[in-house]
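Hello Y.,

Per our agreement to keep a running log of every chain we model this quarter, I'm adding this entry. I've kept the format consistent with earlier entries: sequence first, then predicted structure.
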Amino acid sequence: MADGEKVNPMSEQEKACFDILEDVDHVGSHVNGSITNKHYMPNEIWLLLCFKRAPSWCITLSPADNKHPICRYFADKNSAFNPVIKMDNERLHLISENPVAGARFFHFMIIVFIEHVLGVWDIPREGLSRGKGIFGKTYAYYGMVDRQGKLTLHLHMVLWIRNSLTPQEIWDRIMDEDSMFQKKMVEYLEGIHMGEFLTGSHQDVQQKVNNSMIQDEYDNPTETMPIPPPLKYSMDCW
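Predicted structure for the entry above:
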């Protein structure tokens, strides 16, 4: 079995051994992160593909744990949250010494993505419809956690959007030269694939960044908390 051979139990001792292995696999299938649990995941994805057809999006999430203030708070010893910018070596040492903090931060970011980007939550929220997120009405999603080369976590997710077009329908509309869908798709792709900035040329933006970085009050945007939204939300954004 270690060499990959298929072994059929013949003796009573071998059958008893296989019974134990089956019990271990049964228990392990209910333990998140176990080898047996990971073996079951591809089967679940294939079943979703058969039941809900091809997914609308394939998403990869890699939260920057060594830069985010929340992860540094989880890894630090200070009980009060104070997003102070630290040196690169100090941040890397802080995160590498506390992998549990990195895992907590990763779990927090994924839950926030599912609730606020996909619009899926367990507790009902007044005035909002469950599953209505940025991509549209979420029909289903499935994600698998993977470990990167630097031992940090990232997520591979497939997402289904309700009433979305199938790949064949998208193909037919794109190949139709007279369809408005093709024109809108081309405009969208040309609008997002641009090697330029909205506020000027690359040289102008680089000069503005360099001038800002030498100021005493400069804070790296990748290492600071974003401005929180207003407490009262508007239904127009949904």
